[in-house]
Specification:
Helix 1 packs antiparallel against helix 2. The chain has 78 residues and is mainly alpha-helical.
Length: 78
């Protein structure tokens, strides 16, 4: 997380430094995005999202199986 904060601070300072600062910012981003720390953070985020989707699917399936089916447009509702 500190890496990302450092990147944001670098971005702000880099935009004030002109084109040379922008080139340094690009180089920094390439270094940061290829670091093991960022790769681990992204992999962890993907894992958490995958688990959340699985849990959401399971809960949705439970709710759909508990509720009676909604009548279709052609069924007569009494």
């Amino acid at each position: 997380m500190g890496t990302i904060i450092g990147f944001v601070v670098g971005y702000v300072l880099g935009t004030r430094a002109g084109s040379k600062g922008y080139e340094e910012l690009q180089d920094s981003w390439k270094t940061i995005s290829s670091s093991d720390e960022v790769k681990d953070m992204v992999a962890g985020g993907i894992s958490v999202l995958r688990d959340l989707v699985k849990q959401g699917r399971a809960r949705l399936a439970e709710r759909l199986s508990d509720e009676p089916a909604a009548p279709t447009r052609f069924e007569r509702v009494a």
